[in-house]
Amino acid sequence: MNILVLTSVYPQPDDPNNSGVTPVVHYFAKEWVKQGHNVLVVHNSNKYPSFVYLLSERFKGTINSKVGGFIPNKNIGVLDYQIDGVKVLRLPITKKVPRKPFSSKQINHQYNKIKSYLKEKNFKPDFVTGHWENPQIPLLSMFKEDYSCKTSIVLHELHYIKKSNRWLNTLSRDIDTVGCRSVSMSQKLLNIVDTKDPFICYSGLPNEFIEHAGYNKVPKKIFNETPLKNFVYVGRLILRKNIDVIIKSLNDVYPNKDFKLHIVGEGPEESNLKSLVADLNLDHNIDFKGKLSRPEIMDLLRSSQGFIMVSEREAFGLVYLEAMLANCIVIGSKNEGIDGVINNNENGFLCKSNSVENLVETLNYINKLDEETKERIANTALEAALKFSDSKVAEHYLRNAVKS
């Protein structure tokens, strides 16, 4: 099958750090190539006016942190490249204001550029899928009309759909199937638009990670009656991740400062978080590790007891699955992306996303559990994570996206 993927976010070879870029769409595309499909990705990357790139890193960081998006460090142009056998065309599209939709003129111009490229490559899509609303929803409508192909959109948020009836009408009329990154997002979508039940587009874990954990090659963790002492956070250091909530909660739960928190990731909130750590006199307890590779993250998770991420507007949160596979006791956000994969008090814990009080209560509850209960919850989490291999979730996605 010829699969065309439209996305606003994709790894780029000329941005080796890929700061702020989630590779989630690439994981699907890579698996489809392995499964024998002909895949072409069009990366509709945001390009800002030239003056934006001249702003100080601190000011750009403030914008990134507040809007939850990210402004790249450099002005990048058109690029034709391959990653892991996936053909990619990057076509920048100018965005004057973050979180605002592109104009109809811009959308039409972008569509014509994509169409010309497809003609040049003699690529006629059988199926076109998009990730993120803007500009994918209007582009998919055009592909539906011109190519009479199957179309699908996977929603990572509901920012534009909530604000525009035009977007809602296009979604209902021209897109064959709709996917959401979580059960909670699916429920929110059904509250605002009359559409078929969306399929859930889960992320997965590398098959080799699953095999490594699934054949008992990694000893399961042994917990005891004493409180958890070793925690990890992995993700961007931005406001909506509520990392300050984690730091303040651990400070309250452990007055003797007998705990360790490893913070993995980079972002504009790093200096503020380090100031908070210094103010609370937690410099010896909290370790900022910067950016780590995926294998390094897994090693750190395997050597830790607990994973905490209580972020807001979290589409899914792949790192939760990685922590579950590493046999950690995992704390996530209630009514966010991971809710439904984590079931409270069964294979992990859920609490309010921005509440020190609720996280303190959850940690105190966990610390009072007996050894057997802690191990049961951690082992149940591992068993749940084993079901989410990259190959399985990619098959699930494609099967549900192309159905009538």
UniProtKB/TrEMBL annotation:
UniProt entry keywords in alphabetical sequence: Transferase
Origin: domain of life: Bacteria
Family annotation (InterPro entries): Glyco_trans_1 (IPR001296), Glycosyltransferase_grp1 (IPR050194)
Sections of the chain in a coiled coil: none
Domain Glycosyl transferase family as annotated: residue spans: 225-380
Keyword Transmembrane helix attached: no
GO molecular function: glycosyltransferase activity
Pfam families linked to this entry: Glycos_transf_1 (PF00534)
Listed name of the protein: Glycosyltransferase
Source organism per UniProt: Salicibibacter cibi
